[in-house]
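From the shared-data thread, chain only:
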Amino acid sequence: MKLHLPNTYLKFLFIAVLFSICTLGWGQTYTQVTTTGTLVNGTYLIVADGTTNDGIMLNTITAATPFINYTSVTNPGATISTGTTAANEFVVSVSGSVITIYNASVGYVSWGRTGNIGNTASFFNGTVASTEQWTVSVASGLWTLANVGTAARLLQWNTSSPRFACYTGAQTKLKLYKKMNLLQPLPQQLLHQLQLVMLLQVEM
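Structure, as C-alpha cells:
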C-alpha cells in the first residue's frame, strides 16, 4: 500500500531541505597553483608553509619595521577551505612572468619605496612602479617572488620571526592558492530527504 503524506508535512520538509541547501550548497575553496602555466589573473591566498609555523598573508602591516602580518594556518595542503577572510585575499594580475599583488583596502605589496628598504615589506596604494612588481618562478610548488626594482629582494616568510618580508638570503618561499567557487556535496541524509520530497509518496 501507499501512504500519502499530508501536504503540510511535505511543505515543511521541502522548506527545511531548501534552507539546508542554501546554507551548505556554495562554499569557497582555494586551490594550490604549482605551475606558471596555471598562474592566471584571479583572487589568491599568499601562503607560507614553514618548518615550525605557517601563515597566510594579511592586509595589515607592523609599521615600525615595516613587515606584512599573517593569519595562522596549520600544514596547508593542496586546498584551503577554512580560516580565511577577505583580509587574506589578494588580486594577482599576471603579465608574462611578472605579477602584482593587490588588496583593495591597502593597495599593492611593495618593497623599495621610502621607509621600506632592508628586510621589510609594505603596501602602496598608488600608481604601480617596479617596486610593486614581482618576477615569479616556481619549483616543486614553491614560488620565488623577486622584486622587479631590486631583483635580489625576494618576498618570503620568516619562520624564526613569523612575518612576510623581503630578504636577500634564504628564508621560506611561498605557496599560491587560487580562489575557486565550488558546489559542496550535500550530506547523505539531506540527499535522502530531498529524494523523499521529490517522490512525494513513501512505499509501505
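The first helix runs from residue 7 to 24.
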